[in-house]
Fold:
Amino acid sequence: MNSFTILGTGSSVPPHRVTNDDLAQMVDTSDEWISTRTGIRERRVLTTQTLTDLAVEASRRALEQAQVSPKELDLIICTTLRGDYLTPAEGCVIQEELGASCPAFDLNAACSGFVYALDVAAGYYARGAVKKVLIVSMEAMSQMLDWTDRSTCVLFGDGAGAVVLGEGDDLLAIALTAKGNREALSIPHIHGHSPFLEKKEAAPIRLSMQGQEVYKFAVSSICRGVKKAMAQAGLTPEKVDHVLFHQANMRIIEAAQKRLGIPDDRYHNNIDQYGNTSSASVVILLDEVNRAGLLKRGETLVLCAFGGGLTTGTAVMRWSR
Ligand code: UT7
Structure:
């Protein structure tokens, strides 16, 4: 496949940590419940910085590692549930902050956004339209939660992650799905102040989720997506060197791990530190694993995400840095 290679990665999370014990002061929960049911110990939340600040910092780090200047970028794809603005698109805000001059837009596929963006980027490379692409995934989950709802507010965190892509052939397989479902997971949007609206009360911008429904969907769709992408790439489970799953719940990851037959030592996780950062989760993890020097040239990676939509995305990649 004529696609791309990853030249650099970057990430940024807010400095403010909220521990499970902190949350136990706010809602009826405990460190024991949260850590055993999810694997989360703390998460980062925005206090003074904006989401754009995080995204720009993550992007600069990725560009620096890739040794690519913003002016060299041919495209910026930003993934987010909700940027700091409805318009301009966050991609454009980041383009301005970086001093880039390429086309830029946003993509919303909820937690699967980063993998969806890899697929979109692959299309641009396939038709020879780009040489250098920035994908930046950013999420301010703390600003969309109901902080009185213990069943959701303990799960999420804020953060941003980025990759810079160059020409190559490291995307070995990619599989996306969407199954429209507003019941399982949704965050209603603003309605504005239109005088023509009959119902004046706008729904609050707060996440609601049927946890167990999403849980079952997640385990089955990860298994299906990873098996399909491994088959497309001609990979057996033993040949997978690194697995980076969406960091939503450690029990989801472990349930999929048991079914997939990929050796346990190939899995990387950081959910204990950041919780679920939606579309930023896989790319923050990728940056951590990369910067820890754990990825060797020629190794294979499986990236897999799932979430609102309901969407899923799985990519099999080779590492060539
Ligand atoms: O990226 C988006 C994707 N989202 C996800 O992946 C979420 C998928 N779902 C999950 O991760 C899990 O379903 C949750 C972590 C959300 C919930 O875990 P669960 O094991 O499915 O718990 P449950 O919903 O069955 O609730 C069990 C009990 C309930 O109490 P009762 O009815 O048994 O008395 C809940 O009220 O746990 C209670 N509970 C809590 N207790 C203490 C729910 N949240 C909490 C809490 N602290 N934070």
Q: What stands out?
A: Residues 29, 33-34, 37-38, 111, 150-151, 154, 211-212, 214-215, 218, 248-249, 252, 276, 307 surround oxa(dethia)-CoA (CB under 6 Å). The first strand starts at residue 3 and ends at 12.
